[in-house]
Amino acid sequence: MIHAKIVAAHGDPPSEEVCFLSVHHITMRVLLRQLGWFVFVGCAAAATHWLVAVGCVEALGAAPLLANLAGWLIAFVVSFTGHYRLTFRHLSRNWTLAARRFFLVSAAGFVVNEAAYAWLLHATDLPYDLLLALILIALACLTFLASRLWAFAHTAAR
């Protein structure tokens, strides 16, 4: 990058290779920052989901699958708010569109979560709380990709 500035200072335009490397460097910084915020917000939402679900089972005697639904609904609010304001703040200008899209991403993830959870509760002897934690971790990567590429994608103002 220093070389490009020196060359550009002498009146020669920077090469395409230097421009690509500069843009690539900026893009990687943005992506790494997004991943950091995604992990932070995702952990907060997953902890909320897990605590609400386990709390509903332990304190209220709710069935694990129903408690999982309650945990997801409350965690959705934590997740959307955090991702809209922190993780993908520069991508989406239309929060209502982002909210609808992210709800679809989250709901699809929840359907996979609930189906896998129901099956694993009956197919394994692992404790319900450990199973839920493993499933929440497994869906995080898919949620990041769908959120970045679609749910919070830049949209023109309408």
Summarize the structure in words:
The protein is mainly alpha-helical and 158 residues long. It has one domain (33-151). Helix content is 82%, strand content 0%. It is built from five helices and no strands. Helix 3 (64-87) packs antiparallel against helix 4 (95-123).
Summarize the helices and strands and which ones pair or pack.
Elements: H1 2-9, H2 16-60, H3 64-87, H4 95-123, H5 128-151
Helix pairs in contact: 2-3, 2-5, 3-4, 4-5
Describe the largest sheet: none
Query: Are there runs of 5+ residues with pLDDT below 50, and where?
Result: 1-8
Radius of gyration: 21 Å
| Number of DSSP helical runs | 5
In total, the number of strands is: 0
The ordered string of helix (H) and strand (E) elements is HHHHH
Mean pLDDT: 83
Question: Could you list some keywords that capture this structure?
Answer:
mainly alpha; 0% strand
Question: Summarize this, please?
Answer:
The protein is built from 5 helices and no strands. The protein is mostly helical and 158 residues long. The chain has one domain (33-151).
